[in-house]
Each structure stands twice: as structure tokens, then as C-alpha cells.
Amino acid sequence: MDLLKTFCTAAEAAGAVLVECKSPAQAAARIAELADGAVLLPVSASCERAQLAEQLQTAGVRLLAVDRTQAADAAAGVTSAGFAIADTGTLVLESTAEDVRLASTLPPRHFVLLDRSKIVADGLAAVTPLRQLHQQQPRNYVAYITGPSRTADIERVLTIGVHGPKQLYILLLDNWSSDLLEM
Amino acid sequence: MNKRRQREYKGRIDQVLATPKLQDALHKFGDAYLVSRDKAFTGLDFEALRSEIATMKDGVRENRAELLQQFIQNAEAAGAIVCLAKTAEDANAYIAELAQRKGAKLAVKSKSMASEETHLNVALEKAGTQALETDLGEWIIQLAGQRPSHMVMPAIHMFKEDVAELFSKQTGRQEAAEIPHLVQVAREQLRQGYMDAEIGITGANIAVAETGGLVLVTNEGNARLASTLPKVHVALVGIEKLVPTLEDAARIIQVLPKNATGQALTSYVTWIRGAVPCADEEKELHIVLLDNGRSTLAESPQCRDALRCIRCGACANVCPVYQTVGGHVFGHIYIGAIGIILTAFFHGLDNAAELVRACIGCRSCVSICPSKIDLEEIILSLRETIGEEEGIGAGKNLVFRKVMRNRKLFHSLLRAASVLQKPVTKGERTIRHLPLFFSSLTEWRTLPAVADKPLRDLILQQPQRVEKPRYRVAFYGGCANDFLYPELGLDLVTVMNALDVEVYYPQKQNCCGVPALYSGDKETAVELAKQNIDAMLEGKPDFVLTTCPTCTMALQRDFVAHLKDNPAWAAKAEQLAEITVDAAGFIVNQLGAADAFSQLATSEKVTYHDSCHLKRGAGVWKEPRELIETSGHELVEMAHADRCCGFGGSYSLTSHPDIAKMILKDKLIDIAASGATCVAMDCPGCMMQIRGGLEKQGSEVRAQHTIELLAEAIKSSK
Ligand code: SF4
Ligand code: SF4
Fold first, then answer.
1. I want to staple B67 with a disulfide (CB 3.0 to 4.6 A). Which of B117, B209, B284, B313 is the partner?
2. Domain final position from B355, B390, B425
3. ipTM entry
4. CB B338 less than 6 A from any atom of ligand 2
5. What does pTM read for this prediction?
6. Does the beta carbon of B310 lie inside 6 Å of ligand 2?
7. Residue B315 Cα, ligand 2 centroid: separation in angstroms?
8. Helices (H), B359-404
9. pLDDT over threshold 80, residue A155
10. B280: helix, coil or strand?
11. Which has more confidence, A79 or B431?
């Protein structure tokens, strides 16, 4: 199986929802449909390049400034993944900038844009870019995200959305970003 | 021995056995866990993965000083403030002082076993800081005023109705006992806490020396919130969490969630290095590295492998004792097999003593452990330490030291017992009822009577016609085979002769010493090892055969371990270990005679019970199945075939009959459900337990040793 297929299967098994997109504009339109409220969009190189903020606004999405008070009221956060890990269906987000953490922890929905080509095979293969992230900056907060927030603490029944996002949407794109270290 | 403590513990066992709901939940969890774990490891080589982790972790232990230095240097370079806490008190004092300094009213916590270990919440309350647990399970038990009963699922002992009641008190509303609703209540109730708290406290699953960073492996997302929103982040981390590189961390992450809950990966794996941005400032990150007995553990040659532990909790998931009594009884702060060991080093031997005795020694934990820790062996060595410190009790002392070490006396007492028991056996081979205060022994299973004549006498009278023997083997009978089931030994002779193997019975052999060892009397075990080595090697046999896997383990493993530092004995012990083999394994592997009995038997529906020490000790489980099938029986697998039957020698007879009884009950249910008319096994101990239980139930199913089935097949074909 190719990496993309493996990734998609594993991500869905972990409870993520895959959204196939042909263009950033289509991604923005899908976010507009699904967000169900105001959105946080932390700064990221790939989103800027694609002018995602404008696209979202065109699609009718209300953007909030990413700060703590607003973040708590947002319906969704939109971030871009550095890369993904196929075998577990995991997204890797360089989250040292606090905005990324707020957007990916507080709102009930989390949208992650991912270039279909940026997928490594497994956790061990992920170490190379992970180490590069550590070399690039002196301090880091790197998040591996696999599916929505979950718990099985009451009678071992799997329940979604206890603290973090209740829904995780992965928007798959081509020509979005080719650098594994770029968000 | 501490009688009062023992009585108290017994009381706790009784209490928990009265709540079958808990056992039911833990059994169901154990089953579901194994299914999802299998799935999660599909395509991966668990043995290879765990060997890698074990080797890596041993390296960490050996180089711990340098790695710790490297970690601290890198963490500090990234702006973290590192505190090395020698004791739990030191760690608590540091964090409480910090909280005071910050004027913190509230600290939000994500799950941290280390903070349970140090009782951090109590220390914080005293300093005027409220500690709010945000992990759902931890919050539930915090509201209930309890402690975790499982390392990964702290509230596994509670039910949704209990949770609804606790939450209703908290919210002042009537909360419905529906899980999604309760989870939503927790989300709403805890959310504000992250915003208000001055401090976020987390643990860490891994500390990476290469980067000075921490790794948090979580599902709920509360650790991400607790490490992001408050201005101060305190991570309390046991020093055994160190690994050298990011690759090493990746290997642990690959295995940990799979082995913990059968999840491919947790929802979140968070890599934090240093003081990251926090609300236009810089986070204040304190890393408290906790020793609290870990260095002492590293210095203990018998126990130090426990430092490899990655806290997956699996050793509890599969433990029959844990499944029967739960983590509050089979644990202190840490629970299950690893909990016993950590308790001894972190919370003192006194807190571990009863737990050590409550382990039945089935080795289920050993085979599931992703760090390849021989937990059972370590628990056994703790038993010895406790035996030395506290004594093993006057009665046992007398039996082991004065009687068992003196073979002639021991055996003449057993012979006398066969006569003395006459009034209760009523001429039968099993004892169904015992009078007076012994009566509890036969309430739930019959017991075998001591045979009129032991195997050691009978075997001399059995003619052996082997023209040109392929091998001459010495038979190590063991006490049960010798004095309770001599017919099994005679059957072995029949089977071996049919395979052109001559058998002799060294008359000076004595008890294998396991009962003494399991009671903490190593001295007697060593003395018996020497007696047996001499007795068994004397006639220069080609092999030494056993029908009891506990004896096999003693001859193959324990004797060598006891005597490895004794130059006069080490080589002889090795020699005996090398030629010792269990009967079924011998037929299949050494003789290559798996199909020698082809279709001799009158076909019967047979299910197989794996004896703990045969499967997980000697590694034999395919062989007897093969023999049963080729000899013409229909083999049907029962559920949990390799789960302990609850015998455990003195465990079921004297120390923990109440737990043993429950474990047997599970086994009998599985046997009945298999639809077999015969349950085969390769251990006289299991026979005693299972046969006794079946008889007491009035079941039609018979319990036979594989060797008995083979002898039966030979005889029926003649
Ligand atoms: S040996 Fe068996 S009883 Fe003892 S801790 Fe391990 S699993 Fe539990
Ligand atoms: S001892 Fe092994 S099985 Fe038990 S928690 Fe530790 S790593 Fe897991």
C-alpha cells in the first residue's frame, strides 16, 4: 500500500474525517461548510502563500484574532501540518508558536491542511524531520495528533472530545507545501 | 511475619470478593484488551521490539549518571529550570514552595503517577494551592477521595452510576448516568480551570537526553492544555524515564499505547523542549526529576530490571489476581506486578509484603511485558528478602528446615500420612470433606489422598522390557507425582518404554524446593537443589524427565540461579539444567516421535489447559497439543487456555484459598464452555486443582495428564 492510502486508513480508524480537496479555495469552502462558527487561523507559511485567510473570508467564514479569550469562543481552529505519519494516521504540527496550540486545543473542531506528498512511513521515519525541527529552533513544542480527543475512563467506553477537539478534519491537498518542516 | 497486617489484608480481599461487579468488569476488560492488542501488533515482531527496549533501557541504567547530566544540560540550555529531587518529600517541597512563591490558588494537573507516588496533592493543599485533576479518570477518583486502581485507567473500578452521583454533587444538578453526557460535563466543568490556574502540572512518559525534552503520551488533550495555558509548567518525572535519543523515544512510543490499551497510537504525543512562548512571554518550565528509590533499585542486581518499565499497565491487565481483586487490593500506589516491585522500593517493604505474597506466580505478566522484565522472578526475590527480614512463620520454618531438608524424615512422614488419613478418605483416592477447621480446604474442591504406596516404591516393581534402549533417562517425579499420583509416573514408564526409552527413578531425589522458595525460605531451596543435583546426576542419565513443570523450572532455572556463584556446584547445576526436559517436549523434540501414537486412542473431545510454568516457563505448549491430536483425539481449544487455574501450591492450600477459588471458577467455566469431555494438562498441581474443582461440581469432564492419555491410548490399542 502506498503511504497516502496507509495514512488515510489509519487516520479514519482513529476517528479523523478525511476531506479530499482540489484547491485551497475548495478547502476554504469545505471549512466554511463544516466549521459552524468563527474560526481561528494561526499564522503559517503555507496558509499565507495560498492566501487562505482571504479564501476563508470569501467563503463566508468569520476569522477571530488568535488570543486566549477569543480562542475559547471559536468554533474551529485551522492549521497546516508539517507532515504526517502513515502507519498510525498521525499529523505532526510544529506548535511552538502558542497560536497553533490554542487553535488546536480549545475549539471543538480542528481542521488540518495536509499536502498529500508529505507523509513518512512510521514513527521511526518521523525522527529525521523531528530532529530537524529540534535543530531549527532552540525550543520546541511539537504535537503528534491522531484523531480527535478521546477517553475511555468511564467503563472503558471510547468517548470523543473530552478536553480537546471533538472533530478532527484532515483536508488533503496537492501542491500545498513540499517542505516537511513548513507548517 | 506481621499477623495484624496479614489479617487486615485478608479483610480487604474478603471485602472486594464480595463485589462481583468489579471482577466482571476487569475480566471483560482483560478479554477485550487482548483482542485489540493483538490487532495493534499485527505485522510487528513483539519479541524483537521488546528486546530492543530492554537493551536500550539497560544501557540507560548503566549510563544513567551521564545521561542525566546530558538531559539537564540540554533542558537548561532551552530555558528549563531543573530540580533533582532525591525523595518524594524533596519533590513535594520544591513544588509546594514554587506554588507559594507564585501565590497560586489553583494548579491544574494532567495524569501523573509520579505525583500519586509522592502524594503531591496533599502537599499542595497544605501550601494553600488546590490541585485539580483534569484527566477524566483522575478527576473522578479525586472527587471520590480515592486512589487510582490502575496505572493507565485510574477509575476502572467505578461504574457510570457512581460517576453520575459524584458529578451531580459537583454540579448541583442531577446528571444522567450516560457516558457521553458525563464526558461532556467533565469538559465543561474543567475548562475554566485551565484558564484560572497559575500552574499546570504534568508528568512525562519519556525524557530525551539528546534534546533535553519531554514526551507526553495522552489521549484526552488535557496535558496539552495544562502545559499551554498556565504561565508555569511543572513536570514531575521519574529519572527512569530517561532515554538517550529521539529514536529510542520513538521506539517506546511505537509500543506503549499498543501494549497499554491496544491503541495504535494515543490521540496526542507531545514533545516539549524548554520554555516555549506563553501569552507574549516565556513559559516558566520546571522539570522535577524524581529519584525516590530509583537509584537504590538500580543497585539491586535481582530487581533492577524493573527500571526498564515503561508503565503500560499491561502486567495488571492480564494478571488473574488483579482481575480477581482489583488494583486497590493488588497494589499500593502502583499496582499489579510492577506495582509490587515499585512499592517495595518507593514505599517500603512493609507496604509491599502482602502484595508480594498475593502473586500466584503464573508469569502472565512476564509474557506481556514490552520491556521484557521477568517480573515473577523479581517478585520471588522480594519474597525471599521479606522472608529473611520478617521470618516465614514458625510452622513453615519447621516443615522446611527440619523436615523437608531431611529427605528420609519427610518421606516417612508422608508415608505415615497415607495411613493417618484413612478415616477421611474412606478408602477413596480423593478427600471430599475434611472435618473441623480444615473443612474450608475441601469446600470448593476435593483433594487427592496420599497414595498407599508412593511412586518410588511402585516403579521398582514395574517391569521394563526395552531391548535396545535409545536412551536411559532418570525420572524426576516431584512430590505430587511421587506421593499423590504414582499412577502418572507408571504411565510415563509405559509411554517411554513404547518409545524404546528406559526409565529409572533415583531414590535419593527430594522435593524440588519450590514450596520453600515461594515461601521465602531460600536456604532450604538451596539445600534441596544440592541434594537433587547429586541424586539426579549420580546414574549418569541421558536425560532427566519431569511430569511437573514447576519441578522443570526448578531444575532448569532455579538450581542454576541458586548455585551460580558456588564454584563447587555451578557446573553441576548447569549440567542438570541442560539434560532436564518435560515429558511431552521430550517426545516431540528430542525423540521426534510426535506421531508415534498415531490414531491409537479411542477418540474423545479433549481440551487443553496450559500450565503456567510449562508454557511461560519452559516454553512448551505446542507439543502436548500435537500429541493429543496425533494420538487420535479431537482437540478443541477452550477460551483463556493459558490462564492460571489458581493452584499455586500453598497459595491455594493455605495462603490465599479465597482468590485461588475464584480463579479456578473462571477456569471451570471455560472448560465447560469448550464442550470437551476431557481436559488435558501437563502438571500434577493443575490436576489437583482442576480435577478437585470438577469433582466438587459433579462434572462429567475428566482431568488427565497428557502422559496419562498417551498411556491410555497405548493400552487400549493392545
Ligand atoms: S506472576 Fe501472575 S499472579 Fe503474579 S503478578 Fe504476574 S500475572 Fe499476577
Ligand atoms: S512492568 Fe512491563 S508490563 Fe508492567 S507496566 Fe511496566 S512495562 Fe508494562
1. B209
2. B390
3. 0.97
4. yes
5. 0.93
6. yes
7. 5
8. 364-368, 375-390, 394-397
9. yes
10. coil
11. A79
